[in-house]
Amino acid sequence: MNTTEFVRLLHFLICLGCNIPSITMMSYKLNKYDKSPLKILMVSTEYPPIPGGVGRYAKNLTEGLKRSGMKVSVLCNEKGKGDYRGIDPENGNNSKIILDVIDESVPDLVHIQLEHGLYGLKMDAINPSNLSTNIDEFYKECKIPIITTFHSAYPLRQWMELSKHPNLLNKNMITFPINLSKQIIAYWKRFINYRSFNTANKQKMQMSQANIVFSNYLAKLISENENISNDGKTLKNFTVIYHGAEPNLNMPLKKKEAREAYSLPLNRKIALFFGFMTHTKGWDILNDMDIPDDWAMVINQSENLYNPIKPTSIEGRDNQNRAPHTERKDTQHSKIINLNRGFLTDKELSILFYACDIIILPYTVTSGSGVMFDALAHGLPFIATDLGFFREFANKGLGIVVKRRPNEFAKAIKKLEANYSQYTKRIEEFNKDLTWDNVALQHFALYNTVLSKNEGIKNNLFPYASP
User: What PANTHER family does UniProt report for this protein, alphabetically (predicted)?
Assistant: First the structure.
C-alpha cells in the first residue's frame, strides 16, 4: 500500500469513528477549528525555470504539499514561475515584498527556504557586526508563524574555502599580484565574519516557530549541540526532514536503455560527477585519479545563475571552445566523458542516474547535497569527501567517505564495487523516507504542531492525497 492509499484509508477509518489504539493522535480543541485547508506561503528566490538545487527542492515540496490538500503560494525571483515574484539577492526591499505578499494572500504561516546568498548576504570587511541579508527585517516584523528550512551552515574550514580564488592558479605575471590581493581580502572578510554568520543563523532560528534541516549534522552545527533529544531527530527548535527525492519516470529504466539515451558505453561501470560548475565541487581530483580499467567517469556540469565562478578545468579533457549542449564523440573509449549538456530537466536527470552505477562527490565544501539524495533515490551508492554531512549517511551504510585524495577515491571505487549489493539493499530500504508525499506529510505534521501552539488550529487531522 502506497502513501496515498494509506492516508485515504486512515482518514476513512477516522471518519467512521473506528477505534485504532495503535495510532497516537494529536490533541485538538474542537471549538477552535478553522474549516479551511492550510494556506502556506513558500518563499524561495530560486524557483524553476531558474536552475538550482534550492529551487528544485522548493518546487517538488510545493507540489507534494498541494497533493496533500494544502493551498500553497510561491514567492520567488522575477525569472521563476511562482505565484508572486520580485525577491532577488540584490533587492534591498525583499522584506517589504514578503510582508506585502503576506498581507495580500493571508496565509496561515510562511515557509522560508533559507540560503543566505539567495537573499543578499552582505559582509563587512571592517565591522563584522554589520553582516546582514535583505530579509532580516522580515524576520523581525512578521506577525504570522515562520518556518525556516536551513540549506547551509559551515565549520570554519569550509567557510574559508568558499573564498578561494580559482584564478590564483593562473601565474600570469600581470594578473597574479591582482588576484593574490583579491584572495587576501576575501580570506580576511570571510574570517572576521564567520562568527557573525553563525549568529545570523541562530537569530533566524530563534525567530522561527520551527526549523527544518536535512541532517542531524546541520542541526548540531547551527545549534552548537544544544538540547539534543534522545532519538537524535529533534534538537533545539529543529526537526530533521530528509531532502525529498524520487525518480521522475513512472517505471525504472533499464540501464541499457538509459545509457543508449546518452551514448554511454555498455561494457563498463559508470561513476557520475554531476552538479553546478563551481570550484567547491572538487572535480579537479580527476586530473590525478587512477581510474580502474573497467570504469568510466561521466561528467555533467551546469552554470549557477547566482555564482558565476567556474572551477579549475580538468586538464586535457575540457575543450573550452566546444559549443554548449553537445556530446563528445569518443564516449565508447574514453575513461572520462564530459556530456556538456548543461542544466537537465528532472526527466533527463532520472535517465542519467539510471545510466550510472555510483555517484562521486569529491566536494571541498558542503552543508548538504540534493545530488546525493537524488542519486540514492535511483539506487546509486556514493563516494564522497569525508565531510560531516556525508559522514552521517555513510554511517547508515549508504556510501563511503574518504580523504580528498585521488588514490583514496580510486580505492573506494574498488571497495564499493566488491560490496555493491550490500549498499544497494540498504539504499532501497532508506529510500522509503525520501518520497515527496512522505516529505509533505512530515511537513504537514510540523505545520499543525506550530499552528496548535499559536492557537491557529486547523481541522485537517490528516491531509487528503490526490491520485
Answer: GLYCOSYLTRANSFERASE
Write the CA distances from 114 to 6, 29, 139, integer angstroms.
32, 32, 12
Beta bridge partners of 212: 149, 239
With CA atoms as reference, report the closest residue to 168 among 155, 184, 151.
184
Do 195 and 55 fall within a single domain? yes
Distance set, CA 311 to CA 255, 307, 364 (Å)? 30, 11, 12
Domain of residue 392, CATH code: 3.40.50.2000
Q: Which residues make beta-bridge pairs with 75?
A: 43, 84
C-alpha dihedral sign at 351, 353, 354, 357: positive
In whole angstroms, what is the distance from residue 321 CA to residue 440 CA? 44
What is the rounded CA–CA span in Å between residue 88 and residue 332?
43
Closest CA to 338 of 401, 402, 283: 283
For residue 194, the enclosing domain spans 11-183+190-244+435-453
Alpha-carbon distance of 205 to 227, in angstroms, equals 14
* 459 assigned to some structural domain: no
Residue 322 CB coordination number (10 Å): 12
Per-residue pLDDT of the chain (467 residues; tens, 9 = 90+): 554 554 444 444 334 333 323 222 232 332 333 446 899 999 999 999 988 889 999 999 999 999 999 999 999 999 999 999 999 999 999 999 999 999 999 999 999 999 999 999 999 999 999 999 999 999 999 999 999 999 999 999 999 988 876 555 555 656 666 677 878 888 899 999 999 999 999 999 999 999 999 999 999 898 874 444 444 444 557 999 999 999 998 888 999 999 999 999 999 999 999 887 777 888 888 888 999 989 999 999 776 544 444 444 554 344 333 333 333 434 556 889 999 888 788 899 999 999 999 999 999 999 889 999 999 999 999 999 999 999 999 999 999 999 999 999 999 999 999 999 999 999 999 998 899 999 999 999 999 999 998 765 554 444 444 33
How far from the centroid of its chain's Cα atoms is residue 10's Cα? 31
171 and 314 inside one domain: no
